[in-house]
Amino acid sequence: MIALLSGGTGGAKLARGFAQLLGDPADLAVIANVGDDVWVYGVHVSPDPDLVTYWLADLIDDRGFGIRGDSWRVMEALEQRGQDTWFRLGDQDLALCLLRTERLRAGQRQTVAQQAVADALGVRARVLPATDQPLRTRVRAAGAWLDFQEFMIRRRAQGPIEAVEFEGADKAAPTREVAAALASARLIVIGPSNPVISIGPILAIAGVRAALADRQVPAIAVSPFVGGHAVKGPTDDFCRFAGIEASASGVARAYAGLIDGIVADEPVRGLPHRLVDTLMDDEPGRLRVARTVLELAAELGAALPPTLLGKVTPRS
Q1: 19, 159, 187, 306: which sits with the fewest CB atoms below 10 Å from its CB?
Q2: Which helix (H) or strand (E) holds 296?
Q3: Phi, psi at residue 137, to the nearest 5°?
Q4: What's the pLDDT tens digit per position in 242-288?
Q5: 246 and 236 in contact (C-beta within 8 Å)?
Q6: CA angle at residue 25 from 215 to 7, to 5 degrees?
Q7: Helices (H), 66-204
Q8: How far apart are CA 275 and CA 278, in angstroms?
Q9: Level-2 CATH architecture, domain 2-35+124-139+167-309
Q10: pTM over 0.90
């Protein structure tokens, strides 16, 4: 029913809001960025799909990543033996990465391997890697090309950012599950994730961009900016690099031709929009933004079922 393009924080929070509103969470398909993926400690880590899954399972740690209440025995043991633990994984987090890695090493697609993680946590919404083919976000800063996690963690996202590339995007294709989700959705939503490094790798897949451009149903973006700034992370820096104004209007221009409306905390000229406090730090906030998206979707003609529209506050 709803296809949501998402990174690992803002989009994941919105995914939880939608899942709580939908009668059947399986009516939600989250198309997640895999440009941040990394191999470390012998396992395949897929940060954004996992964060979406942890949010949907109501297991996310208060830090906004990892699993709540996780232990760190493996990392501690590695450190005691002089190993570099620059990328830290809690024990439960590592165990779920092992589930995915076993399936990948057995020749299964990443989509199938990610489903094993969702199944292990009882998540019924579909968390779909945008592609099963290699796709890696790389950042050039201070004259050096770095994989995304190295830039974010080892370099602490210190710029200046000189270039961004999505390695493998020219050969990547959306999975059949992603293609089906976009083709059958009654509503497509671009979540409030970083437009450059979270949504950018998804839209760099030609088949995904083409599906949005040829859409037959409404598509709505949610601005990642609150009061003219990103809530967390390097979104402001990446948008400045990409020439995207840190405003709802800047986001609307970045997604021109791919959306029919936007939800934001400030007006946008020339595009249908709904105003709402877009901060989603708690459950009421997540539900508030999700409901507002559905309100605008109904206004734009989305064929949403009466049971779902009944959960939306009417506007006069």
Answers
A1: 306
A2: helix 283-299
A3: -85, 130
A4: 999 999 999 999 999 999 999 999 999 999 999 999 999 999 999 99
A5: yes
A6: 60
A7: 73-80, 91-105, 110-120, 148-149, 176-184, 200-203
A8: 9
A9: 3-Layer(aba) Sandwich (3.40)
A10: yes
